[in-house]
Q: What sequence folds into this?
């Protein structure tokens, strides 16, 4: 007997899953490409999200609207609150709804589409493995580009400038060292991406039997991402990854096994990478003629950030703490970057938006913690990665904005979708 041909709805769902994989493989790594390349007026990642993600949701039909859980409602609340509160702020100040402000108001909806497209298609462990495989393997060319940029090879440095529109060659000449950016517009943004990918890969590495990639292949991917992270010369993210890897190894129980070589390899790589971070360390603590000085063990950049928050950003929130200032930067701010996701949330939507963001991250950690309880290696790996990323972002984003830039937030939203889809499947299994 020959197998019956797939029904039209099954074929449509298969194509939806393929489109979702393309979405996962392309959007995070291309999210730093400058607006207008290659389509004038648009970002490539936004177009891919709208076109591919929208096609996935349409193809899935009623499945796209079915069974929203707590994290789904929080994700929607985050997007809607960013839009509504930001719009109210702009109207209150008679500020224009220009392209930059509209991008800030509508930006979270692209994350919501990505999140939902992955959630409704990743209904089996096989598909979830494919999603994770696409996410991890897509980091390889970005990491290679970052490493080649850090070697100051003109062709690759110039390619990054053309791709992102950000040119820091003058800064590198003044500092005396190159900071890799990969396909992203800034080394901090690249560091956030490599940090989240590194945590995800290492979390899976600590759970043999996950089936995403062979351990040797996964170890090579993680090692390459770690090297790329080091080449961004971002001390906070590099230190955070080292600490998180050790904690993941301890939590997995593999340190009791003398053959637990992956953590050792990671630590050796980070120790060797100390020579990469040494110029940054000297820059932070050397005396300067102008600008803030380091205070004891507190590096100069932390002192500078504190001064920015105190003098340029927090004062505009007076009488605006509840709903915020708006999606734009205060016009009197001399430094156009908030340097903290918590300050960013307060500006964009006040305490209300900050509370929704914190609730989303806490709920993601709760979903991840549930997956870590008596589950198969894949589920435990997804859950431990979710918990670890929530914790590492909670600390690092005191002085960074990884969740509101590019690269890192897409990884977080994809992982959140996988966690929800996995948890839903487990709750539906007969006991």
A:
């Amino acid at each position: 007997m020959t197998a019956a041909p797939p029904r039209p709805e099954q074929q449509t769902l298969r194509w939806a899953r393929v489109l979702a994989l393309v979405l996962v493989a392309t959007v995070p790594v291309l999210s730093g490409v400058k607006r207008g390349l290659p389509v004038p007026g648009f970002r490539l990642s936004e177009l891919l999200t709208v076109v591919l993600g929208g096609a996935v949701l349409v193809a899935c039909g009623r499945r796209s609207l079915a069974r929203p859980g707590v994290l789904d409602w929080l994700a929607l609340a985050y997007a809607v609150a960013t839009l509504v509160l930001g719009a109210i702020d702009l109207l209150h100040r008679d500020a224009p709804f220009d392209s930059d402000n509209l991008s800030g108001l509508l930006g979270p909806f692209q994350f919501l589409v990505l999140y939902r497209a992955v959630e409704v298609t990743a209904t089996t462990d096989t598909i979830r493995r494919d999603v994770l495989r696409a996410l991890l393997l897509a980091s390889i060319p970005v990491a290679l580009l970052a490493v080649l940029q850090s070697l100051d090879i003109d062709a690759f440095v110039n390619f990054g400038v053309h791709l992102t529109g950000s040119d820091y060659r003058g800064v590198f000449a003044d500092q005396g060292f190159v900071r890799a950016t990969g396909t992203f517009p800034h080394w901090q943004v690249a560091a956030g991406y490599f940090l989240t990918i590194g945590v995800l890969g290492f979390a899976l590495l600590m759970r043999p039997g996950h089936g995403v990639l062979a351990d040797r292949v996964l170890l090579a991917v993680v090692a390459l991402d770690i090297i790329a992270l080091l080449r961004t010369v971002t001390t906070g993210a590099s230190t955070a990854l080292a600490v998180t890897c050790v904690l993941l190894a301890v939590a997995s129980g593999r340190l009791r096994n003398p053959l637990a070589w992956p953590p050792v390899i990671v630590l050796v790589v980070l120790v060797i990478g100390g020579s990469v971070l040494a110029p940054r360390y000297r820059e932070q603590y050397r005396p300067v003629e102008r600008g803030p000085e380091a205070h004891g063990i507190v590096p100069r950049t932390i002192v500078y950030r504190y001064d920015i928050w105190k003098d340029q950003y927090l004062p505009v929130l007076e009488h605006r703490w509840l709903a915020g200032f708006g999606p734009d930067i205060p016009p009197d701010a001399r430094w156009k970057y908030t340097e903290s996701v918590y300050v960013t949330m307060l500006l964009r939507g006040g305490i209300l938006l900050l509370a929704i963001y914190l609730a989303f991250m806490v709920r993601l950690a709760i979903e991840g913690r549930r997956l870590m309880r008596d589950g198969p290696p894949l589920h435990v790996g997804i859950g431990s990665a979710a918990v670890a990323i929530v914790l590492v972002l909670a600390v690092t984003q005191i002085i960074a904005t990884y969740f509101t830039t590019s690269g890192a937030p897409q990884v977080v939203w994809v992982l959140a979708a996988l966690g929800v889809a996995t948890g839903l499947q487990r709750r539906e299994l007969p006991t």
